[in-house]
């Protein structure tokens, strides 16, 4: 005990010890991650978009690489600062989600191909607006189209049989963002891209908006303990989107996956600080096949419905 000097009462002073210091360092690191995770993603999106435009990078190569990088970044954060550890995908779920991701990617490519002709016909050679003004306008236009299609997918009985596939998992994470019916993706992505094409936005603005929307789409599904405070009233977040996946329709809402302003405007904004869903999934799990039954899920829309009425979040 030669390294311990006695206190006045004769009791040795306890060491703070490396375990305490390590715990404090870990907490500090987690706090720093929670604060910086989303700003870092936004800054990275801006930097990639700026570099691609200034250096004339091929959008067809930049977009998928950026998407994979975003997924890897958010998946790492899910391990470092998880919101719910029980929401981590199991090995079996990773296999299912991987298959759905490939299907979703193929469906997105198909949707883009279907509107390519329209884009070529209506996209102006010289945009009427400066790119700095055109990008926000394109974001607002595409976001509104996405909001309307998404909300319709919840209230229309036929479209719900497509979109409901996405709500079957009883957890929300980056991996199951890709759990979708291919036709749901074709309709949703096609509607958004067609709206941008018909307005006549330049390909540069559509590319930049596409990067932001892709980052936001995976960010809001991330199982991470990140809070964005007052920005929730402008931008979508995991806090809001977990409510969107709630089995309780009174707290669901939040059909915007990039901006939250349309939820405010159309009275579907339910988030408040500290509000968490009672449970996520669908109210009637038996109305859809389990996520792991991929072939059955793809055929599900053409099977006889077990009950009438539109689906729930």
Strand runs, count: 0
Secondary-structure element order, N to C? HHHHHHHHHH
- Largest sheet, strands/sense/barrel: none
Helix content: 55-70%
List the total number of helices: 10
Indicate the low-confidence ranges by residue numbers.
1-16, 308-313
Mean pLDDT, nearest integer?
87
Oligomer: single chain
Pairing-aware structural class of the strands and helices?
mainly alpha
Estimate the global geometry from the Cα principal axes: globular
**Through-space gap between termini:** 63 Å
Radius of gyration: 23 Å
How big a fraction of the residues is strand? under 5%
Task: Summarize the topology.
Elements: H1 17-54, H2 59-80, H3 91-122, H4 131-155, H5 157-163, H6 182-199, H7 203-221, H8 238-244, H9 261-265, H10 294-299
Helix pairs in contact: 1-2, 1-7, 2-7, 3-6, 4-5, 4-6, 4-7
Could you characterize what this model shows?
57% of the residues lie in helices and 0% in strands. It has ten helices and no strands. Helix 4 (131-155) runs antiparallel to helix 6. The termini are far apart.
Keywords:
10 helices; disordered C terminus; 313 residues; disordered N terminus; mainly alpha
Summarize the structure.
With 313 residues, this protein is mainly alpha-helical. The chain has helices at residues 17-54, 59-80, 91-122, 131-155, 157-163, 182-199, 203-221, 238-244, 261-265, 294-299.
């Amino acid at each position: 005990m030669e390294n311990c000097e006695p206190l006045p009462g004769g009791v040795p002073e306890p060491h703070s010890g490396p375990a305490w210091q390590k715990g404090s360092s870990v907490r500090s690191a987690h706090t720093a991650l929670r604060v910086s995770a989303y700003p870092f993603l936004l800054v990275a999106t801006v930097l990639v978009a700026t570099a691609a435009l200034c250096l004339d990078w091929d959008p067809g190569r930049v977009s998928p690489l950026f998407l994979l990088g975003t997924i890897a970044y958010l998946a790492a954060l899910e391990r470092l600062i998880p919101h719910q550890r029980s929401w981590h995908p199991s090995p079996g779920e990773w296999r299912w989600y991987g298959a759905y991701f490939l299907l979703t990617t193929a469906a997105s490519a198909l949707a883009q191909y279907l509107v390519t002709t329209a884009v070529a016909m209506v996209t102006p050679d010289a945009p009427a607006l400066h790119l700095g003004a055109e990008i926000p306008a394109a974001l607002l236009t595409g976001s509104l189209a996405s909001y309307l299609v998404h909300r319709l997918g919840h209230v229309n009985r036929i479209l719900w049989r497509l979109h409901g596939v996405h709500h079957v998992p009883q957890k929300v994470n980056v991996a199951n963002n890709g759990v979708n019916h291919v036709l749901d993706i074709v309709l949703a992505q096609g509607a958004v891209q067609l709206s941008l094409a018909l307005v006549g936005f330049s390909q540069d603005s559509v590319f930049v908006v596409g990067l932001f929307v892709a980052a936001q789409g995976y960010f809001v599904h991330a199982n991470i303990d990140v809070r964005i405070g007052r920005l929730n009233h402008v931008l979508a977040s995991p806090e809001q989107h977990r409510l969107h996946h709630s089995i309780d329709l009174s707290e669901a809402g939040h059909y915007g996956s990039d901006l939250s302003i349309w939820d405010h405007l159309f009275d579907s904004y339910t988030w408040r600080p500290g509000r968490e869903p009672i449970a996520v999934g669908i109210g009637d799990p038996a109305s859809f096949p389990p996520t792991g039954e991929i072939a059955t899920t793809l055929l599900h829309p053409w099977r006889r419905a077990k009950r009438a009425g539109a689906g729930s979040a």
